[in-house]
Amino acid sequence: MIQSQSSPAGHRRAAGPALLPPAAVASAARSAAVHADGAERRRRLHDETVLLLTRAGFARHFVPRAWGGTEGTFSALLDAACAVGADCASAAWCGVLWAAHGRFAAYLPPDGQRDLWAASPDTRITAVMGASGEATPTPDGWLLSGSWAYASGVAFADWLLLTSTEPAEQGGRCRVFAVPRGQADVLDTWRADGMCGTGSHTVVVDSVTVPRHRSFLMTDLTAGTPGPGRARCHTVPAQLGGGLLFCAPALGAARHALEAWSRWAVRHMRGVSEAEALRLHRVLALSTDEIEAAQLLLRDAGQRADAEAWTERDVARNRRIAASVIGLLARAVERLHRTGVRPGAAGPDTVERCRRDVRTVAGHRMLRREQAAVDYARSVFSEVSEAPEAPEVAAATAATEATEATEVSDSVANLHPEGPHADII
Fold it and tell me: For 268-280, what is each residue's pLDDT tens digit?
């Protein structure tokens, strides 16, 4: 692990396992590689890959130890997801989200946690955190109806976490509801150009009864509110660790693209002009610089998410880093793709798929650079100056505050492309 050189003084890593079992992660990665083409065609992972991801410990990574879970670290999860992502970004995406959703479910009351994990800590949970549908209060809980898009890995989920808003007369708060997968229907709606194997379809529930112990407030999750039985990994604000996890599959895909492109370039350079060779050398160096810079930033931010203590500046910094990392990776893979496109060449074909995967991840709301920049600037300016905000900063602050709740709920857990991908190169 590359050690952080920029973490604030006093930050210490929380206790926890250093790694998911390397041999098990490697087995999952090999299966993901073998079945990557089929997963893309079928728009879902292969059963074997799902089984091996589960055995590797992705689903249990953040589950409380009281239920047999690992209560692991962000850094360990980033490394494992990146390793799998080098063979199939979709498999890495599902694995890292199953882990993240186990962390979310730790906010359920004890009886709700028992419903999910009494039989096994390896319960796979799909979550959609964008508020939708209708939650009607009942004497014992809620009656939930509606549809939720972008439910990644839902074909293999045991439970769903679905977000809705209480009626205004009840306070209008955003709540997360745990629903057994068998009580929901799945609509085949996932048609993105990249990350095809995630199977991020739409789920529909119709008048499903949700008891009180299977719900928690979204604000507790976004703020990282401490509570009985919640370990350090559970009391992390959503913006401190969430965006980093989205970047790990993209980092793996970018590494894979670089390796495939390099093999192609070695063959292509035979007999080319000196100018063409120099061009390829420059492409290799620039893209490698960006991918390695992204890796260093991501690992440093992972250590910050694992630290014993955090500040609002840490949250803003990690959000800024996640947006920067995905930009670096997208530029690197785009450059490789533009340089290496040749019909029928195995290397460039691989680069093309990696490019589509990285660009799809980059379309996620949580990785928007503009709002990450505003958030970070607010944290910096509030510390270095007591002067009133300039009009343009005040306006940007007001705009950010107006959209913050919607943005967090829409982005904290799921792939969420918005039509044609923005040009981020």
Answer: 888 788 888 899 9
How big is the chain by its Cα radius of gyration, in Å? 21
Classified as helix, coil or strand, 362 is helix
- Distance CA(82)–CA(295), nearest Å, equals 10
Q: Residues 179, 84, 125, CA angle at the centre, nearest 5°?
A: 5
Q: What is the pLDDT of residue 382?
A: 82
> For residue 12, what are the contacts with CB-CB under 8 A and spacing of at least 6?
307, 308
Q: What is the pLDDT of residue 145?
A: 97
Strands 159-165 and 125-128: parallel
Interior CA angle at 50 toward 49 and 52, to 5°? 65
DSSP state of 190: -
State yes or no: pLDDT of 364 exceeds 90: no
Alpha carbon 338 to its chain centroid, in Å, reads 27
How much is the average pLDDT of 215-223? 95
Parallel, antiparallel, or unpaired for β 174-180 and 159-165?
Answer: antiparallel
**What kind and span of H or E run contains 113?**
helix 110-117
Distance, in Å, from the CA atom of 96 to the CA atom of 91, rounded to the nearest integer, reads: 9
**C-alpha distances in angstroms, 142 versus 27, 111, 129, 315?**
42, 16, 17, 33
> Two tokens at 122?
């390896």
